[in-house]
Design brief:
The complex is a heterodimer of chains A (168) and B (228). Chain A is an alpha/beta fold. Chain A contains seven helices and six strands; from the N terminus they run H-E-H-E-H-E-H-H-E-H-E-H-E. Chain A has a six-stranded parallel β-sheet with strand order 2-1-3-4-6-5, sandwiched between helices. The termini of chain A are close together. The relative contact order of chain A is 0.19. Chain B has 228 residues and is an alpha/beta fold. A six-stranded mixed β-sheet of chain B has the order 2-3-1-4-5-10. A two-stranded antiparallel sheet of chain B has the order 6-7. In chain B, strand 4, helix 6 and strand 5 form a beta-alpha-beta unit. Chain B is globular. The mean pLDDT of chain B is 96. Classes of the chains: A alpha/beta (168), B alpha/beta (228). At the A-B interface, helix 3 and helix 5 of A face strand 2, helix 5 and helix 6 of B.
């Protein structure tokens, strides 16, 4: 099983729970091997978002508060950072503040390959490891990617799930 | 107008002003905005959600929040809504679907996410914000998405014309000295922009987003601090 196939398989299995939603800009267009085919099987749970990272991240928190289990896919970690307010000022603070469950996954892909340039290949994993309120998963093997994604989606707390594209 | 609610809210805020030696956090009072909160209190239901700002006491009482637990939160007591951890400006009471954020515009995108989850469920989201929140990018991202997905959400903008002490004329576009209204710009995104809270609730309950702008006049300072 390839790394990207492991992620696709975990997503497909988790989407059997109708409260799980996969949100992102290209999730509906079989653009990436991570999400390929999911939109056909779960058309109501795979949701195209506008290019609005602040909204993507903050709305994930609202979806979670109201009973959903959102996964927000950012094609580059650099893009997730555009929507930083909720990642710093809201999502990681809420459980400590009011003791609720807040299941949500931010899936951030670290770019790789020639020509990505300085804006599409950065890895911010360390920031989130140091921030109270986040669980960080950074799988290194296909089996690790599969198991950790299951744990992230089925858990009750915010998870930053980092995907290194070079492992695909 | 629910005069009783307005009087109760005013009395609560005046009690804070008279007891700043007991208060343990910065407080932004709802004085001058009582009628908006009173209108919300008449329309909002238990199963609805309310997202608010740093100036949230009126909204919290409108949602059916506990005056005593709010008082204790403001006084930093463990019997407060969040055990005195959050203070006045960013507490959450999940038991009544109430969440406030003290980041300007911070709760708008969250509110839209909740409305997305509630689509077709029968309940609605009320998102209270001030005029300065409409200067944030996430506000425009949010109303665009609410319109695109036909979300059951009512945005209520209390426009007091001030961001702390900076007048809106220095912050938002105005031509030939005439301020363009916020609702007018929002209407370009396809949201209904009724003039009153009650109509706004009606539209949101029909499953469509609405934006209501109400002019208010803030009484007193932007914020009061504990007396040490």
């Amino acid at each position: 099983m390839l790394f990207s196939e492991a992620i696709n398989k975990a997503l497909e299995e988790c989407l059997q729970d109708p409260s799980v939603l996969l949100c992102g800009q290209l999730v509906n267009y079989s653009h990436s091997s991570l999400t390929r085919g999911l939109e056909k099987k779960y058309p109501k749970q795979v949701i195209t978002y506008p290019v609005a990272e602040n909204l993507m991240n903050s709305s994930a928190m609202g979806l979670s508060l109201a009973g959903k289990r959102p996964i927000v896919l950012h094609e580059r970690f650099d893009f997730a950072i555009v929507g930083m307010d909720s990642l710093v000022n809201h999502i990681p603070l809420w459980q400590k503040k009011c003791g609720i469950k807040l299941p949500l996954v931010i899936m951030a892909i670290v770019g790789s390959g020639k020509g990505q340039g300085p804006q599409q290949n950065k890895d911010f994993t360390k920031w989130f490891r140091e921030m109270e309120g986040w669980t960080v998963f950074e799988p290194k093997t296909p089996m690790g990617a599969y198991l950790e994604l299951h744990a992230a989606i089925k858990g009750d707390s915010p998870v930053m799930y980092v995907v290194h594209r070079e492992l695909y | 107008m629910n005069r009783q609610f307005c009087e109760r809210l005013r009395a609560f805020e005046e009690k804070i002003l008279a007891n700043l030696d007991k208060v343990k956090c910065p407080v932004h009072l709802s004085l001058g905005g009582e009628e908006v909160s009173a209108a919300i209190s008449e329309e909002i239901r238990e199963e609805d959600w309310l997202f608010s700002t740093h100036r949230n006491h009126g909204h919290y009482l409108a949602k059916g929040g506990s005056e005593d637990r709010l008082w204790d939160e403001i006084c930093g007591l463990t019997t407060g809504i969040n055990q005195g951890y959050a203070g006045s400006q960013c507490f959450s009471d999940p038991a009544i679907n109430f969440h406030a954020s003290s980041i300007v515009g911070g709760s708008v995108g969250i509110a839209v996410g909740a409305a997305f989850a509630l689509r077709g469920a029968g309940s609605i989201v009320v998102c209270c914000l001030g005029d300065a929140a409409t200067e944030e990018g996430v506000f425009w991202e949010s109303i665009s998405f609410a319109s695109l997905k036909s979300l059951p959400i009512l945005f209520i903008c209390e426009n007091n014309g001030l961001s702390i002490n900076v007048p809106i004329s220095e912050r938002q576009p105005n031509k030939e000295g005439r301020q363009t209204s916020i609702w007018w710009r929002v209407s370009a995104f396809g949201l209904a922009t009724p003039p009153d809270v009650r109509t706004g609730f009606k539209i949101a309950r029909s499953g469509e987003p609405a934006f209501v702008e109400i002019e208010t006049k803030r009484e007193g300072n932007h914020c009061y601090f504990p007396k040490r």
